[in-house]
């Protein structure tokens, strides 16, 4: 049976997810919820998918219909999510949290534990940089015995960084570092995350470099083989995800760089940073089917 | 003729020496410069607070140690830091710098992205600090955009804005026209931070001053990214010819300290600096480009040219490897 999905938050992320859920045969979109009748997202939904229920009653709508929903995707913001979660906790549906609230289980869809999927209700998708870098960092940590230090640098297009991103860079860094720490076992102290916002026109695709320092001897071809497998696994759910710099030794450190171009659904294809976290959401939701 | 001179030797200079300025040098330098009548001394990693990284370069010393030593040795001259949101966060970096007693914070960002500075500027102002917005790589956009970005910084409550010609790209009258335009459109104090990649650092600084800038940056012996900054002792001498009255002795002594410590890293307009300036690519990439060009047996010029073509900005050092591999392919 198709899972019934409700999306709350009708901004860019929510609207792009709407398109992705609508074309996926595992799901039926129960409702698309915002708080402003004239928001771009609500108008987009009414126009493109007249069959989908829209509402601008925000959490009040969920309170009325919670037992008709299997998966609730929250694309509001961290503050609202924490508030709304007081109610979500009472419900039977699974919650996928797209905000950096960190109150749910930090989740990479392909690295999720089966038991957690069953036991937990609230799943947090960390950040775009987290979804991009953690699969690579996790593989590196599996094959390199003693990583001393890990660093992740992402460059994104200025146009893909909305006001919320710009105002929450500190949270982005803290959440991504926490996610990297959880999936590599490395202490936070030895992890650093940097984000660069580049205004170049034509817009740049998201590019993320993962650096590491280690005293271990690395068998580059063996690690690369495993990295390639990881990349193609992620590639299954993020079509625009690819390696641009394979694992390379430079000076005193190793570097791997990946690039993400988006699917160009609701958002332009340069917004790979927004696309990858949305693709991760769909992948996770598929696991609940 | 109130003019604030900010000495960036111990911060921008770190780019020129792979971030190896040590505590001993910071101690000696600060003790010496403190009697020079300068407004402030900037200390830290080349990209500022929290920027010690594989991406930009690991720093020999920790931020807190550098700032603590500088703080203890500056009595008359204010202690200043450069800080870029996303390299630095409030919890990890700004709070520690506030606790140590840093007087001035320059919150830096790429010239078109001023809104990422809002939160940190607001926070630092709430702690009663002297705070400036610092627009980096100002050659990468037009003057109207710079004005509107400066207006944002003004609206965040900053005390001023510093224009950073991070690659020494400006020539002719551009600096005068830009500063005059900003003077007219803003009530903020304006600073100018020069680089010497095209040999214009002192000239551009003097043009900025004449057009109404109230803050000028310089560094002893010019030690800084690319071909270095406006050479501080020269800048003061030129200022003195224009009616100022700076004491040259402390800064010359500091310049000698720098030369004795880093004889092989003295700023000069070499191939790398020249092409960085010409193609408008961040000066701080110089050491990285030289190292990677050597590793992949590439012409430094070709790497700079490709970086310029790709509109790479400060903080994107990882793209140098990417571009080297493409050139090699």
Question: What key attributes describe this structure?
Answer:
heterodimer; A: 289 residues; alpha/beta; Rossmann fold; Dihydrodipicolinate Reductase, domain 2; 7-stranded parallel beta sheet; 26% strand; B: 329 residues; TIM Barrel; Helicase, Ruva Protein, domain 3; 2 domains; 8 strands; 45% helix; globular
Largest interchain contact: A-B, 34 and 32 residues
Topology order of chain A in helix (H) and strand (E) letters: EHEHEHEHEEHEHEHHEEHEEH
Return the CATH architecture of the largest domain in chain B: Alpha-Beta Barrel
End-to-end gap of chain A: 8 Å
Topology:
The complex is a heterodimer of chains A (289) and B (329).
Chain A: E1 3-8, H1 12-22, E2 27-33, H2 40-48, E3 53-55, H3 59-65, E4 71-74, H4 78-88, E5 94-97, E6 105-106, H5 114-119, E7 122-124, H6 128-143, E8 147-157, H7 163-167, H8 169-184, E9 191-198, E10 206-214, H9 220-237, E11 241-250, E12 253-260, H10 272-287
Parallel strand pairs in A: 1-2, 1-4, 2-3, 4-5, 5-7, 6-7, 8-9
Antiparallel strand pairs in A: 8-10, 10-12, 11-12
Helix pairs in contact in A: 1-2, 1-10, 6-8, 6-9, 6-10
Chain B: E1 4-7, H1 9-16, H2 23-33, E2 40-42, H3 63-73, E3 78-83, H4 90-100, E4 104-110, H5 118-126, E5 130-136, H6 143-155, E6 160-164, H7 174-185, E7 189-193, H8 201-210, E8 215-218, H9 232-241, H10 249-261, H11 271-279, H12 286-295, H13 300-309, H14 318-328
Parallel strand pairs in B: 1-2, 1-8, 2-3, 3-4, 4-5, 5-6, 6-7, 7-8
Helix pairs in contact in B: 2-3, 2-10, 3-4, 6-7, 7-8, 11-13, 13-14
């Amino acid at each position: 049976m198709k899972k019934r999905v409700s999306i709350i938050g009708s901004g860019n992320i929510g609207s792009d997810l709407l398109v992705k859920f609508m074309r996926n045969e595992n799901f039926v979109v129960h409702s698309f919820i915002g708080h402003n009748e004239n928001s771009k997202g609500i108008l987009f939904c009414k126009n493109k998918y007249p069959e989908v229920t829209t509402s601008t009653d925000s959490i009040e709508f969920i309170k009325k219909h919670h037992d008709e929903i299997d998966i609730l995707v929250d694309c509001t913001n961290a503050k609202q999510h924490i508030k709304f979660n007081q109610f979500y906790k009472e419900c039977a549906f699974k919650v996928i949290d797209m905000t950096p609230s960190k109150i749910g289980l930090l989740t990479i869809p392909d690295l999720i534990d089966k038991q957690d999927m069953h036991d937990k209700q609230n799943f947090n998708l960390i950040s775009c940089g987290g979804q991009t870098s953690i699969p690579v960092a996790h593989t590196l940590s599996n094959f390199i015995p003693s990583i001393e230090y890990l660093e992740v640098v992402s460059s994104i297009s200025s146009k893909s960084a909305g006001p919320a991103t710009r105002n929450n860079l500190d949270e982005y860094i803290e959440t991504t570092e926490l996610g990297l720490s959880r999936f590599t076992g490395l202490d936070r102290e030895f992890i650093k995350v940097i984000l660069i916002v580049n205004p170049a026109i034509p817009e740049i695709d998201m590019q993320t470099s993962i650096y590491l320092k280690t005293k271990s001897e690395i068998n580059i071809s063996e690690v690369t083989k495993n990295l390639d497998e990881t990349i193609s696994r992620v590639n299954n759910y993020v079509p625009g995800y690819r390696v641009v710099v394979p694992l390379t030794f430079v000076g005193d450190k190793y570097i791997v760089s990946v690039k993400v171009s988006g699917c160009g659904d609701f958002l332009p294809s340069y917004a790979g940073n927004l696309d990858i976290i949305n693709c991760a959401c769909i992948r996770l939701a598929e696991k609940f089917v | 003729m109130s003019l604030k001179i900010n000495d960036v030797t111990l911060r921008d200079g770190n780019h020129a020496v792979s971030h190896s300025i040590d505590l001993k040098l910071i101690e000696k330098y600060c003790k010496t410069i403190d009697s020079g009548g300068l407004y402030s001394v900037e200390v830290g990693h080349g990209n500022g607070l929290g920027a010690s990284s594989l991406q930009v370069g690991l720093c020999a010393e920790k931020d807190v140690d550098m700032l603590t030593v500088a703080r203890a040795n500056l009595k008359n001259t204010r202690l200043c830091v450069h800080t870029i949101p996303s390299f630095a966060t409030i919890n990890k970096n700004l709070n520690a710098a506030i606790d140590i007693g840093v007087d001035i914070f320059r919150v830096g960002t790429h010239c078109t992205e001023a809104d990422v500075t809002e939160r940190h500027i607001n926070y630092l102002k709430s702690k009663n600090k002297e705070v400036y917005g610092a627009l980096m790589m100002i050659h990468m956009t037009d003057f109207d955009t710079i004005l509107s970005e400066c207006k944002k910084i003004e609206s965040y409550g900053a005390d001023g804005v510093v224009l950073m010609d991070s690659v020494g790209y400006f020539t002719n009258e551009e600096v005068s026209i830009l500063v005059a335009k900003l003077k007219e459109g803003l009530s903020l104090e304006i600073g100018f931070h020069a680089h010497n990649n095209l040999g214009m650092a002192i000239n551009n600084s003097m043009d900025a001053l004449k057009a109404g800038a109230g803050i000028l940056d310089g560094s002893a012996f010019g030690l800084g990214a690319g071909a270095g900054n406006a050479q501080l002792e020269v800048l003061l001498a030129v200022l003195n010819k224009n009616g100022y009255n700076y004491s040259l002795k402390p800064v010359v002594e500091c310049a000698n300290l720098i030369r004795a410590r880093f004889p092989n890293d003295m700023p000069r307009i070499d191939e790398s600096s020249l092409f960085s300036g010409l193609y408008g690519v961040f000066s701080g990439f110089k050491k990285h480009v030289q190292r990677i060009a050597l590793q992949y047996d590439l012409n430094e010029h070709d790497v700079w040219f490709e970086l310029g073509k790709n509109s790479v900005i400060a903080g994107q050092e990882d793209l140098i490897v990417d571009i080297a591999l493409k050139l090699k392919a």
